[in-house]
C-alpha cells in the first residue's frame, strides 16, 4: 500500500485570530495531528496573531490546553506535543493599525523561501483590512495563500463586496474559501462512489431516481453562539454553504478531471440550474421552525439567543429543483435544524420503485432502493435492497441494508481525520479542489436571497417545534403533499 502521509513543503502559517475559538478548537488540533503523523516538515512554523497583549509563552500554554481538550489522550505523546509546541510563536497586532505590521514582516522574512499561509480566523468585517494590510507591507506575494471561512457574506451584495475586497489584493488562485464539509472524508467518498465505480453513474438521473434527501440534524441548540446565529439562521448558517455544496457534488456532471477548476465549473453549473424560489413558491416549498418547549423552564430558541421577538429559524426544510436534463422533475429535499432528536448528517438517494411487481400481493411491500451516504455518526454507505426472507412459509421479502462503514474499510487501527487536517494541508500544497471559488459563493447567494426576501415579506413567524423532536409538523406535511416521507432522524 502506498504511504498515506505525503510531507508538504516547509511553510509559515499565520493565524489571524490566533487565540480565538476556531484556532483553539479546530486549527491547532488539526495541525498537531498532521505533525504527529509526520506530514509537517521540521522547518515549518505556526504564528498566532491577535490583539490580546500576551507573549509566545502564554500562547503556547493556551495551545497546550487546547490540545488536552480537543485531542484524544492516546494521541498526545509527550514527544509529539513538545515538537508541535516548539513550532508556535505569537505576535500581538492590531490589524487596523497600519504601523503595527513590522513584527510580522520581520518574522516572515526570516524564512523567505517558505510557503506563506494567512488564515483569517476572524470575522469577515476584517477580511478586506487584513488583505490590504498584507499587501501594504509586501506580504501578499505569489507564494502566499489566503484562507477565509464563512460567513462569506450575509447576502449576495455583501458577498460580492467581500470577494472584491479580497480579489483587489489576492489572485483567485491564491484564495482558499473553506467549507469544512468538503474536507469530510465521506463527502470526498461521494465523489469516489460516483466517479470511481461504473455501477452508479448509469442510474444517477431522473429516469431511475425518485428524489434525494439531504439532512443535517443536530441535537444541540445554538449554545453560546446565539448572537451570531440569530443574525444568520439555519439558511445562512448551514444551507447556503454546507447543504448546497453537498447537493452540488451529488448532482454535478462528471468533471473531465479531478482538478480544482474542472470540479468547480461543474458545481457552478448545478448552482445556476437551481430553479429560483420566489414569492408564493417559497411558502409552499420551504418550512421554517424554531425550537420551543412548552414548560416555562423548557429550552427555547428565543431564550438561547436572548431575543423574545426573533423570527430567525433554527430549522429549515427546502424542496429544491434542478432544471437540467439529468434532474428534470427530481426533488432535492434539504433540511437542517438545531435541537432535533439526534445528531445525524446523511444524503439519501431514493430510487424509483420497480415498474411492476411480479410477486402479487405481499405482506411486506416492495420498498424502493435507497443509497445513503452517512457523514455522521458512523461514516459509511448503505444500500437498501429487497431480498427474500430466508426460510419456508411462503415468499416474503425483506428490505436489507448492505452496510459499509468507511472506518472498517481500513486495515489496522485508524482514525477518521478531521476535515481541517486535509484542508489545511491542501492549502499548503496549493490544491484548491476542495475549496469554493468566488463565483460559486455568489451563485449560492443568488439562489438563497429571494427565499429570505419572501419570508421577510410574508411577515410569518417560524413554526414552533419541540426540542428533541423531528422538527416542525409542516415539514412532514410538505413531504406528504408529494406522497413521500422524510427518513428517520436517528443516530
Ligand atoms: C458550522 C455551523 O458551519 O457547522 C454550525 O456554523 C454547525 O452551526 C456546524 O453546528 C456543523 O458542523 P459538523 O461538522 O458538526 O456537521
Describe the structure.
The protein is an alpha/beta fold and 491 residues long. The chain has two domains: 11-149, NAD(P)-binding Rossmann-like Domain (Rossmann fold, 3-Layer(aba) Sandwich), CATH 3.40.50; 182-415 and 438-481, Dihydrodipicolinate Reductase, domain 2 (2-Layer Sandwich), CATH 3.30.360. The chain is 35% helix and 20% strand. The chain is built from 14 helices and 15 strands. The strands form two sheets. A nine-stranded mixed β-sheet has the order 14-13-12-11-7-10-9-8-15, with helices on both faces. Strand 4 (115-120), helix 5 (127-136) and strand 5 (144-149) form a beta-alpha-beta unit. The longest helix has 26 residues, at 226-251. It is globular. The mean pLDDT is 94. 6-O-phosphono-beta-D-glucopyranose binds at residues 218, 237, 345.
Give the secondary structure arrangement, pairings included:
Blueprint: E1 11-16, H1 21-36, E2 45-50, H2 56-70, H3 78-86, E3 88-92, H4 102-109, E4 115-120, H5 127-136, E5 144-149, H6 156-167, E6 175-178, H7 185-195, E7 209-217, H8 226-251, H9 260-273, H10 279-285, E8 286-291, H11 301-305, E9 315-321, E10 331-337, E11 344-351, E12 370-376, E13 380-388, E14 397-405, H12 419-429, H13 438-458, E15 463-465, H14 473-481
Parallel strand pairs: 1-2, 1-4, 2-3, 4-5, 5-6, 7-10, 8-15
Antiparallel strand pairs: 7-11, 8-9, 9-10, 11-12, 12-13, 13-14
Helix pairs in contact: 1-2, 1-3, 1-12, 6-13, 8-9, 8-13, 9-13, 10-13
The chain binds 6-O-phosphono-beta-D-glucopyranose.
Amino acid at each position: 500500500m502506498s504511504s498515506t502521509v505525503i510531507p508538504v513543503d516547509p511553510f509559515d502559517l499565520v493565524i489571524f485570530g490566533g487565540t480565538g475559538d476556531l484556532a483553539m478548537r479546530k486549527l491547532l488540533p488539526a495541525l498537531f495531528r498532521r505533525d504527529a503523523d509526520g506530514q509537517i516538515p521540521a522547518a515549518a512554523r505556526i504564528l498566532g496573531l491577535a490583539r490580546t497583549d500576551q507573549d509566545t509563552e502564554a500562547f503556547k500554554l493556551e495551545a497546550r490546553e487546547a490540545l488536552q481538550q480537543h485531542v484524544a489522550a492516546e494521541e498526545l505523546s509527550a514527544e509529539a506535543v513538545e515538537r508541535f509546541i516548539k513550532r508556535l510563536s505569537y505576535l500581538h497586532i492590531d490589524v487596523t493599525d497600519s504601523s503595527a505590521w513590522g513584527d510580522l514582516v520581520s518574522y516572515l522574512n526570516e524564512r523567505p523561501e517558505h510557503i506563506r499561509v494567512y488564515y483569517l480566523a476572524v470575522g469577515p468585517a476584517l477580511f478586506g483590512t487584513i488583505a490590504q494590510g498584507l499587501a501594504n507591507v509586501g506580504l501578499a506575494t505569489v507564494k502566499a495563500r489566503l484562507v477565509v471561512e464563512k460567513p462569506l457574506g450575509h447576502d449576495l451584495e455583501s458577498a460580492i463586496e467581500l470577494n472584491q475586497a479580497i480579489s483587489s489584493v489576492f489572485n483567485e488562485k491564491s484564495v482558499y474559501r473553506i467549507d469544512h464539509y468538503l474536507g469530510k472524508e465521506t463527502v470526498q467518498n461521494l465523489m469516489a462512489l460516483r466517479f470511481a465505480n461504473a455501477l452508479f453513474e448509469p442510474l444517477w438521473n431522473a429516469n431511475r431516481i425518485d428524489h434525494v434527501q439531504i439532512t443535517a440534524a443536530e441535537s444541540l441548540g445554538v449554545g453560546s453562539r446565539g448572537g451570531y446565529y440569530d443574525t444568520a439562521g439555519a439558511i445562512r448558517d448551514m444551507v447556503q454553504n454546507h447543504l448546497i455544496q453537498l447537493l452540488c457534488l451529488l448532482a454535478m456532471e462528471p468533471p473531465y478531471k479531478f482538478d480544482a477548476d474542472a470540479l468547480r465549473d461543474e458545481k457552478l453549473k448545478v448552482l445556476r440550474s437551481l430553479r429560483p424560489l420566489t414569492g408564493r413558491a417559497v411558502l409552499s416549498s420551504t418550512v421554517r421552525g424554531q425550537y420551543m418547549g412548552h414548560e416555562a423552564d423548557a429550552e427555547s430558541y428565543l431564550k438561547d439567543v436572548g431575543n423574545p421577538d426573533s423570527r430567525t429559524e433554527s430549522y429549515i426544510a427546502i424542496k429544491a429543483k434542478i432544471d437540467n436534463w439529468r434532474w428534470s422533475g427530481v426533488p432535492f429535499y434539504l433540511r437542517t435544524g438545531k435541537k432535533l432528536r439526534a445528531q445525524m448528517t446523511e444524503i439519501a438517494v431514493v430510487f424509483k420503485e420497480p415498474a411492476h411487481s411480479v410477486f402479487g400481493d405481499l405482506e411486506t411491500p416492495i420498498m424502493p432502493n435507497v443509497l445513503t451516504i452517512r457523514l455522521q455518526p458512523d461514516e459509511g454507505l448503505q444500500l437498501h435492497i429487497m431480498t427474500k426472507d430466508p426460510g419456508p412459509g411462503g415468499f416474503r421479502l425483506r428490505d436489507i441494508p448492505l452496510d459499509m462503514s468507511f472506518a472498517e474499510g481500513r486495515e489496522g487501527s485508524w482514525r477518521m481525520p478531521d476535515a481541517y487536517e486535509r484542508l489545511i494541508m491542501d492549502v499548503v500544497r496549493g490544491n484548491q479542489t476542495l475549496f469554493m471559488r468566488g463565483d460559486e459563493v455568489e451563485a449560492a447567494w443568488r439562489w438563497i436571497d429571494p427565499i429570505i426576501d419572501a419570508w421577510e415579506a410574508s411577515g410569518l413567524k417560524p413554526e414552533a417545534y419541540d426540542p428533541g423532536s423531528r422538527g416542525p409538523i409542516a415539514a412532514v406535511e410538505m413531504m406528504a403533499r408529494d406522497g413521500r416521507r422524510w427518513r428517520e432522524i436517528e443516530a
